[in-house]
Design brief:
By secondary structure, the protein is α/β, with parallel strands linked by helices. Helices cover 52% and strands 18% of the residues. It has one domain: Glutaredoxin, CATH 3.40.30.10.
Length: 149
């Protein structure tokens, strides 16, 4: 009986890891993301979002950031960071403060805002808002970043 339970747990962990890989790995620790980007020679994409209340943010994530085309583009070029400002979802006080600090540092005025930094931390791309044009948004993002990678 214990063997079946262990097999079930291992299978569940495998499924979760596959789903996470398919959706891209979104970090929340900016310092770790910067270190990873520098080590791997990648850029850092900061997504400033209100994940549980902002309709354009939800649409951007669903229509752009979770799509195969974006994930394939991002895989070798970007370290993804979610900078979230939720209403219902609970964040630690440390995470809230870190997100507020990043929002202030990059002068974010609305959500969603996407900012991409090169491996040295310099802003190389910035785009605010999302109006439901997934193809246009993705094309603009990829075009803007292809010049830098």
């Amino acid at each position: 009986m214990k063997m079946k339970k262990l097999a079930g747990i291992l299978f569940a962990l495998f499924v979760v890891s596959q789903v996470s890989a398919a959706e891209g790995e979104w970090l929340t620790d900016f310092a770790k993301a910067q270190a990873k980007a520098k080590q791997e020679g990648k850029m850092v994409l900061l997504e400033f979002t209100g994940s549980d209340w902002c309709a354009p943010c939800k649409a951007l994530h669903k229509q752009v950031f979770s799509k195969k085309e974006f994930l394939e583009f991002a895989k070798d070029r970007l370290v993804l960071v979610e900078v979230d400002f939720p209403i219902r979802k609970k964040l630690s006080e440390e995470q809230k403060q870190a997100n507020e600090d990043l929002g202030g540092k990059y002068k974010v005025e609305g959500y969603p805002t996407v900012i991409v930094l090169d491996k040295d931390g310099k802003v190389v791309f910035e785009q605010g808002g999302y109006r439901g044009d997934a193809k246009g948004y993705l094309k603009n993002l990829m075009k803007g970043l292809s010049k830098r990678s």
